[in-house]
Structure to design on (335 residues):
């Protein structure tokens, strides 16, 4: 895992303020965050052996990050300190509806250059999956894609936030994981259709009716099949909020609905999805089964406050997904 590490400051409000408006919050939380770190914790919670390669500043936030990761049982030897930048930070606001806004300061994450990938080449080669996100420098993502491809390690790319990558780096993604907005930035979009109801980001809850969910999944499934056929990526997963997710690879395409839940805090749910997906793939599960399990992880995450603290145990995720503790080893039928 080559990924970002932040310390999040989250305020909880009844509703988001209008421009220029000052409002009172009814809660405050300072906790570990960053897409890379969130995904590492989610993968670890699902049972994966995770090596997180990240950068922090020489500040108090770095100590909080290390202590939190150690509390989860993650190995810390891949986290190095840089002297010329603060630990990454995020300012998050969560409304009582469960929706959120996020402002990120990259800080030390910008110092996680491609040399870090070269230094960890042996770990990348030994890994079943190499996962990264759009919160690290573009050159680092592209280097990990190349090193992973050379080593035969499955490269999972969460293009969040969207960044301008070389086509070759995206082409070896297996899968490329994006939400609807991110998908459109790389040219993945369903054909316009009457009654199409797109949902929010990540694996969040939705008020869409099931027929709308069916239409959304069908439209996006066609789009993911098309881009895999065109060679944009080896496989693609698009998350559709409360409508679930779709996935396509050379073996077929799948559409999975999401459980109906009442969201409390959607922050980090997409990272819970992606980290769990990577962990499920690393233990040999086929893509359709891994997606179904990842949807369950996201649905559980939105029902609790926070990011890493909201991620459920392996047993809880498997129970909600209706999945066995052992990989099925069989691909699903086309949707």
């Amino acid at each position: 895992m080559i990924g970002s590490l932040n310390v999040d400051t989250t305020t909880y409000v009844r509703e988001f303020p209008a421009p220029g408006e000052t409002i009172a919050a009814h809660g405050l939380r300072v906790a570990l965050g960053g897409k890379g770190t969130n995904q590492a914790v989610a993968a670890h919670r699902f049972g994966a052996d995770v090596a997180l390669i990240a950068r922090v500043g020489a500040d108090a936030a770095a100590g909080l990050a290390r202590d939190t990761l150690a509390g989860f049982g993650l190995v810390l030897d891949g986290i190095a300190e840089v002297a010329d930048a603060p630990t990454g930070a995020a300012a998050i606001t969560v409304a009582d509806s469960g929706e959120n806004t996020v402002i990120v300061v990259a800080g030390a994450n910008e110092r996680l250059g491609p040399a870090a990938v070269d230094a960890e080449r042996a770990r990348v080669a030994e890994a079943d999956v190499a996962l990264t996100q759009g919160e690290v420098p573009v050159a680092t993502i592209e280097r990990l894609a190349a090193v992973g491809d050379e080593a035969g390690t499955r490269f999972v790319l969460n293009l969040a936030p969207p960044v301008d990558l070389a086509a070759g780096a995206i082409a070896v993604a297996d899968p490329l994981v994006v939400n609807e907005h991110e998908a459109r930035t790389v040219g993945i979009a369903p054909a316009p259709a009457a009654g199409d109801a797109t949902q929010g980001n990540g694996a969040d809850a939705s008020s869409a009716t099931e027929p709308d969910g069916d239409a959304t999944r069908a439209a996006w499934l066609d789009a993911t099949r098309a881009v895999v056929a065109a060679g944009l990526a080896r496989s693609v997963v698009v998350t559709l909020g409360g409508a679930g997710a779709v996935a396509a690879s050379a073996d077929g395409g799948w559409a999975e609905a999401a459980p109906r839940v009442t969201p409390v805090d959607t922050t980090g749910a997409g990272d819970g999805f992606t980290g769990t997906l990577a962990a499920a793939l690393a233990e040999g599960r086929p893509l359709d089964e891994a997606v179904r399990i990842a949807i369950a992880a996201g649905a559980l995450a939105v029902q609790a406050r926070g990011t890493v603290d909201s991620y459920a145990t392996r047993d809880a995720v498997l129970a909600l997904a209706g999945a066995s503790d052992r990989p099925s080893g069989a691909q699903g039928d086309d949707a």
